[in-house]
């Protein structure tokens, strides 16, 4: 998971200065849910800023986010280039503790905390499916990555 996190941060940093695509807003981003078909995600979000093959059948698509400060970007992670397997949200600043506390207020529970990195378990507010969320710091930014529980357990082995 740390590899995916580092790649998404790197791509967002590059695209912040080089990209010309329109940024998405938080309301549109909120319509996306885990296991959504890629075509439906594209219908809502449009074309991504960047696309990267992560290996093991995973692809990441990176989007800029507008009018959602301190959030600066988001990523969609697909399994076998078909279904949304995970989402990543990148925020400027050290907001990891506040993010974890907010997730707990929304029904998640902390299952692991190591050196400012939190792993939480909860349910998707749209679908009710079990999720695993990781909140971590990377180069002065807070990264929140959310995956469907079964996918996370399979991929993190």
Briefly characterize the structure.
This protein has helices at 2-18, 26-29, 38-45, 96-105, 149-155, and strands at 24-25, 50-55, 58-66, 71-79, 83-92, 109-114, 117-123, 130-138, 141-148. Strand 3 and strand 4 form a beta hairpin.
* Count of helical stretches: 5
Strand content: 35-45%
Spans of at least 5 consecutive residues whose pLDDT stays below 50 are: 14-21
Structural class call reads alpha+beta
Write the element-wise H/E pattern from the N-terminal end onward.
HEHHEEEEHEEEEH
What is the global morphology? globular
Portion in helices: 25-40%
Q: Tell me about the biggest sheet? A: 9 strands, mixed
Give the distance, in angstroms, between the N- and C-terminal Cα atoms: 10 Å
* Average of the residue pLDDT scores: 83
Number of β-strand runs: 9
Radius of gyration: 14 Å
Describe the structure.
It is built from five helices and nine strands, in the order H-E-H-H-E-E-E-E-H-E-E-E-E-H. With 157 residues, it is an alpha+beta fold. Strands 1, 2, 3, 4, 5, 6, 7, 8 and 9 form a nine-stranded mixed sheet that branches. The protein is globular and about 35 Å long. The N and C termini lie close together (10 Å). 37% of the residues are buried.
